[in-house]
Structure to design on (498 residues):
């Protein structure tokens, strides 16, 4: 009887190889209850596999942690705060902005930008701390734990080409440049993610360097000041696995229909999307284009590549 | 031992040495799965939250007695299942004392599609119809996808017993799903025929 049950279970689970499955089905055909038992198993498993993932809400998570910490004598303040979840309300804005980005990528030829005649003082580097795996099927970029694997290899003379002509830019649009006072301009970051010691493994901090040479200095000052503020730091985490429901900023791969991968960082504050940063990565893992968008109206704030 | 199991042991040792971050890490890695087990065992969100909380309190209070013969997660699931049994018994007693009708409370989850993705209602009802020990086996093995040995360790029964419970549990589940299905559903008719 035990063999019969195991056979049905294995067959329903699909864990048998083809030959074994054929043999099992033949054996079950001779058993009076075999076919109905197999159908029951398959029906139950199909229903179970059709289920979603259960998770606690932010408030529930915080409440449970605090209660547990209190009960075992840990001060609540000693435990790390629960990060805010990445709300799905962000995705409509992301979808709209992604469409804008695709149009931008189609309009601006990358090579011509990389060979442009810039001032030579505006090279920048984008370093993104990422995890070891990029889950293509899940469409997400894991941003945890490992050393940086992507870098922006911008040409100092080419990277300061504005994506939009002045007349095309909205009042809030600008072009982000590296600080002119930086001696080694190739090291001046536009966006850098770092992981301070002592911070959680899947939490990263992103800062945005400013430029006063081009664009709107007031806007950049404001942006920079906000982003340097400890209360407004970008906290990154992956979307793909169990930690991904606790993020302030998330990264995701957008389908483009080409070999190039386009990632998007979505920065959220007070449950509202406030900044979207898209970047394209070539097949060598080098970021070759970048765009920063305001999700409210999809206004471009800065672009490269 | 898997990387996760090794990491859990290390975190537990750090917690016992007074590292509050280790507590947080352990919570973060396991709280959703424990909550999922509790929710599917108890079918009531508030009860599941209470059981999740009690599970972790028990585990952290008894952390120094964890011998490491099984994975930390296996021990945690065992505590979770036993905590659910206790909660279910208390709830049953409470209902029989306080309510004229033994009606299961409705899980208020699902109001927020992001934070509370739940099982299909028909599957919830079908799981609810299973005897407790069969439900535990099906929830751990099929819903949570744990290995048979892990389920056996978590339930404190031999692997053969787990196989048998899963086998019978699936059949009962299929029966319950069939009974719950729309009679006009051709699949249902086919199944019943």
């Amino acid at each position: 009887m035990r063999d019969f049950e195991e056979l049905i279970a294995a067959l329903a689970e699909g864990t048998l190889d083809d030959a074994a499955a054929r043999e099992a089905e033949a054996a079950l055909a001779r058993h009076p209850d075999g076919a109905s038992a197999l159908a029951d198993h398959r029906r139950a498993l199909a229903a179970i596999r059709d289920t979603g993932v259960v998770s606690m809400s932010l408030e529930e998570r915080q409440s449970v942690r605090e209660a547990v910490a209190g009960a075992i004598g840990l001060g609540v303040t000693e435990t790390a705060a629960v990060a805010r979840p990445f709300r799905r309300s962000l995705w409509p804005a992301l979808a709209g902005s992604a469409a804008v980005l695709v149009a931008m990528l189609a309009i601006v030829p990358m090579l011509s930008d990389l060979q442009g005649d810039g001032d030579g003082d505006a090279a920048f580097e984008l370093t993104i701390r990422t995890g070891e795996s990029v889950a293509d099927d899940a469409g997400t970029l894991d941003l945890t734990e490992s050393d940086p694997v992507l870098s922006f290899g911008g040409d100092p003379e080419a990277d300061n080409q504005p994506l939009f002509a002045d007349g095309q830019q909205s009042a809030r649009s600008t072009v982000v440049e590296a600080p002119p006072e930086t001696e080694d301009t190739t090291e001046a970051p536009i966006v850098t993610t770092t992981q301070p010691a002592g911070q959680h493994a899947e939490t990263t901090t992103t800062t945005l360097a400013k430029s006063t040479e081009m664009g709107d200095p007031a806007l950049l000052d404001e942006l920079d000041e906000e982003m340097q503020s400890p209360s407004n730091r970008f906290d990154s985490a992956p979307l793909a696995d169990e930690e991904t429901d606790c993020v302030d900023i998330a990264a995701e791969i957008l389908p483009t229909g080409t070999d190039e991968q386009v990632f998007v960082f979505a920065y959220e504050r007070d449950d509202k999307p406030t900044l979207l940063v898209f970047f394209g990565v070539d097949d060598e893992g080098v970021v070759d284009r970048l765009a920063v968008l305001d999700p409210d109206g999809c206004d471009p704030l800065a672009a490269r590549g | 031992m898997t990387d996760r199991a090794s990491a859990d042991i290390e975190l537990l040792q750090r917690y016992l040495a007074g590292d509050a971050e280790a507590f947080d890490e352990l919570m973060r890695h396991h709280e959703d799965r424990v909550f999922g087990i509790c929710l599917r065992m108890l079918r009531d969100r508030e009860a599941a939250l209470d059981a999740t909380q009690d599970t972790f309190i028990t585990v952290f209070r008894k952390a120094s007695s964890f011998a490491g013969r099984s994975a930390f997660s296996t021990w945690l699931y065992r505590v979770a299942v036993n905590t659910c049994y206790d909660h279910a018994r208390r709830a049953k007693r409470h209902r029989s004392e306080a309510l004229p009708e033994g009606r299961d409370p409705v899980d208020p989850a699902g109001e927020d599609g992001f934070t509370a993705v739940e099982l299909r209602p028909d599957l919830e009802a079908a799981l609810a119809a299973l005897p407790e020990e069969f439900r535990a086996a099906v929830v751990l093995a099929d819903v949570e996808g744990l290995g048979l040995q892990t389920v056996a360790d978590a339930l404190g029964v031999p692997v053969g017993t787990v196989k048998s419970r899963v086998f019978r549990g699936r059949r009962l589940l299929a029966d319950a799903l069939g009974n719950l299905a729309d009679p006009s559903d051709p699949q249902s008719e086919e199944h019943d025929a």
